[in-house]
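A note on notation is needed here, since sequence and fold are reported together in a single record. The reader may check this reading against the record printed directly beneath this paragraph.
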Amino acid sequence: MILLLLWSIDVSAQAKKPELLIIPSDKYCNDNGYVKTVQNMGQTRVVMDYRKLFLEDKKFPVALAQINKEFGERGFQLLKLDEVIKKIEADQIEMSLMQSKSGEEVSISPLDRIKQVAKADIILSLDMSLNESWEGSTCDITLFAIDAYTSKSISSITGQSPPNSSLNIQVLVKAAILAYIDDFQQQLIDHFTAMKTKGREISLKVKLYNSAPFVLDDEFIYPDLGINEEDEVIAIINEWLRQNCVNGVFNMNNATENFIDYSNVRIPLYEEKNGEQVAVSAYSWSKDLQKMFKKAPFETKAKRYVKGLGEIWIIIGE
């Protein structure tokens, strides 16, 4: 009994925690001039310039390293933003959109590219300021947690260190978050644990090229899914989702003869391959849906595009 209890405690302690990626907040980048303008699909946009921040800012990377350390000591796996940026540059992922041979476009923002490469579960947006007064130095820290796949808010904390005669950034940052970090990290764990039961949330969009040999309200038989009487392509896709989403959960927001928009599509966190638990991505999960259109009765080409981590596009036709 004692051995069983110790084993149970050990398993609980080693339960997988979400992978985190900490990025500078948009506010911090804007306030300190770490922004740049880019052309995206014919429009000028302002985006965060994280590379410039790491090259020029002497204080923020120190604060970031300290917060990485605090979460690392609590058993989280931290993905380092500067290393992710270097990988993006090494892989020459510098384009702002993906374009098919038929001219269809899926816009990819710099942050979406970072999400794709890092594959974190949760993004922590960090804002900080260092202040000096006659009482000493203080540090204000705000951490805002969002789901990396949906950009939905999970939790946030704001803390200020007590006045300190030291200008040591690590000391000030640690003091600013010490009273809040344990409750905060538990909320991150609770969010991740809920995903194991309910599935990871993504969105799915299905679109037809003009050259597609059918429209989405055309009717077919599809026995592989148990559809033995003619039904619309939309209904066949819905049945595939019902059979492949966790607990059959998804929402269809809009459907026309050429386009379907789905949200709250719940996919498994992991699947077993060769005896190991392997993370499931939106891209890998949607592979069988893409392949469905290559087989009878559809027999046409279909392509997958992923935007960020949590938005997958299936585009049907040549």
Notes: The mean pLDDT is 87.
